[in-house]
Amino acid sequence: MDFLKHLRRLFAYDEWANREALRALRAAEPPPARSQKLLAHILAAERLWLGRLLSDSSPVEVWPALTPEQCEARLGELSRRWHTYLAGMAAGELSSRVAYVNSKGEAWESTIEDVLLHVVTHSAYHRGQMASDLRASGHAPAYTDFIHCVRQGWVR
Prior knowledge:
Blueprint: H1 3-27, H2 33-53, H3 68-87, E1 97-101, E2 107-111, H4 112-136, H5 146-151
Antiparallel strand pairs: 1-2
Helix pairs in contact: 1-2, 1-3, 1-4, 2-3, 2-4
């Protein structure tokens, strides 16, 4: 399998896992504030990185306060935008570099491949924090393991 195809699989998994995390958040009554904040951050960070890849310098709040309904709307928009971005990419572009300024005002440059891997792993990290928080609050966390996603038929 080529690496671009693999990245597309990982982003399909990421979308599924974010939807599962949102479903678990909605099932928690009331939803724990920290879990809600973490999901909003996942979506904001994914939007921020997509903007960097597209050279879109529109400001993105990294830790926004979003309701589950707002998270759902952002998740739908993000899913479409990531799909379009990845569908239009050629494998040779993965080694291209993108320059950006981080939230501390520091200038950096990374390969597109590294940015894409970061987006997926960053989101998985915070979904793990959500799972711990939901469990500690007495709620059932989402089961977002990659292999479970594959078993569900979301990623082939």
